[in-house]
Specification:
CATH superfamily: OPCA outer membrane adhesin/invasin
Strand order of the largest sheet: 1-4-5-8-10-11-12-13-14-15
CATH topology: Lipocalin
Largest sheet: 10 strands, antiparallel, barrel
Order of helices and strands: HEEEEEEEEEEEEEEHE
Number of helices: 2
CATH class: Mainly Beta
Helix content: 10-25%
CATH architecture: Beta Barrel
Number of domains: 1
Length: 398
């Protein structure tokens, strides 16, 4: 799996580099055949334009700055004017970088519940796994084509989480119980007066993802730019979950613990729609939504030691590897504010943005599924994986 992971992360970059070199070769051929150029100016309506600034480069021959507001009569009504960023005398390539500060969470990671029998009516106190925001990053590389202004973009996302949650029982009465599904040999109940200290759970989640998009940006009206895209996505999600309880047995404190891991990868098609609403002097409101349907493979296994009912010593156990192959749906959403501008006579372009982003990955936590299946012989829906939070990005076109 590690070799597949390395090859997968490099493959989109190799593809883009190959296509980019091919595109440059085609550009040189077109420069040598000037008589085949298509003049956008010839398509402009005879009504005078009210736009103030135009790129006057002969090799572009375009009467507006792509990616910024245009005048209503710039293009015939039947043609969707290209809306991508287009620099003069450049490589028609761009790089992106993002700092992300996201909350990383999952279903079915809670520790258990305390049943307080010493009160009337009885009370239940939940031991919830607490999630935090953690930093991560994205990096991307893209290239634009002369053919109808399409672009190809690949992006790598990395965010890793390592979180510990401790739960202190509210009482230590011998009539009160702690119930959990994470242990396999016992009846899932532990008298609170036999628990020393806290119940502790640790969750480690390493998430790495590569997206590949083929897209075309075009105007809808004068200030709205749409960017539909289609492509593929692959991600790797490796998780570990560990739960420990110090149990008092015959005057001795014994460490009862369970450890389960779920290694997963998924690959498949991805498509969506991005948009920019151009406000004023380079400022814009933007958003996108994407959906993927992926083939996913999950490997789950576990081990630990417990004190079975009626025993006074620890008994080890092992849960053999379980392989689950499923279809996984992924939903993504982003909404933000950005600013960009051309520089040096339109020879390069810089864009800065800040956004809120949310993503959901279905059926990623088979650890809780395994716990319920083994402890109470009940099959439950595997838990989902969630990412959401702040994304600060920069883009450079050259």
């Amino acid at each position: 799996m590690k070799s597949l992971k390395k090859v997968t992360l490099l493959l989109p970059l190799i593809m883009i580099a190959t296509i980019f070199l091919y595109g440059r070769k085609q550009d040189i051929s077109k420069l040598l055949q000037k008589e085949q150029k298509i003049s956008y100016v010839a398509q402009v309506d005879s009504v005078p334009s009210t736009c103030d600034e135009y790129c006057t480069e002969d090799e572009k021959n375009i009467t507006f700055d792509q990616g910024y507001p245009i005048c209503e009569n710039e293009f015939p009504k039947a043609y969707s004017a290209p809306g991508r960023i287009d620099v003069c005398e450049g490589f028609d390539a761009f790089v992106t970088g993002s700092f992300i500060y996201w909350n990383v969470s999952s279903d079915q990671l809670d520790l258990g519940v305390s049943k307080i029998d010493s009160t009337y009516p009885n009370q239940f106190d939940s031991a919830i796994f607490k999630f935090d925001y953690v930093p991560g990053f994205k990096v991307g590389l893209g290239v634009s084509f002369n053919h109808d202004n399409w672009d190809l973009f690949s992006q790598y996302t990395r965010i890793h989480e390592n979180k510990t949650t401790s739960y202190t029982p509210p009482t230590r009465d011998n009539n009160d119980l702690f119930l959990t599904q994470w242990f396999f040999l016992v009846s899932d109940t532990h008298p609170l007066n036999e628990i020393e200290g806290d119940v502790t759970a640790k969750w480690k989640a390493d998430f790495d993802k590569v997206d590949l998009e083929l897209a075309r940006s075009y105007y809808l009206g004068t200030n709205l730019i749409a960017r539909p895209f289609i492509g593929g996505s692959i991600h790797f999600l490796d998780q570990r979950y560990n739960l420990t309880i110090n149990v008092i047995e015959s005057g001795a404190i014994l460490l009862q613990e369970v450890s389960i891991k779920n290694d997963s990868w998924a690959i498949g098609p991805r498509f969506g729609l991005g948009s920019n609403y151009l406000i004023y002097k380079g400022f814009r409101i933007f958003g996108y939504g994407a959906i993927s349907l992926l083939y996913a493979d999950n490997e789950i296994k576990g081990n630990g030691n417990e004190i079975p009912d009626g025993q006074t010593i620890l008994f080890p156990f092992t849960f053999n590897k379980m392989d689950k192959k499923i279809l996984r749906d992924v939903e993504e959403f982003q909404l933000g504010l950005g600013w960009g501008s051309y520089f040096t006579k339109n020879q390069w372009h810089m864009d800065l943005s800040v956004a809120y982003e949310a993503q959901r990955y279905a059926k990623t936590n088979f650890m809780g599924y395994l716990g319920a299946l083994t402890a109470i012989a009940t099959e439950v829906k595997p838990g989902d994986f969630y990412l959401h939070g702040l994304t600060v990005s920069a883009r450079f076109d050259f």
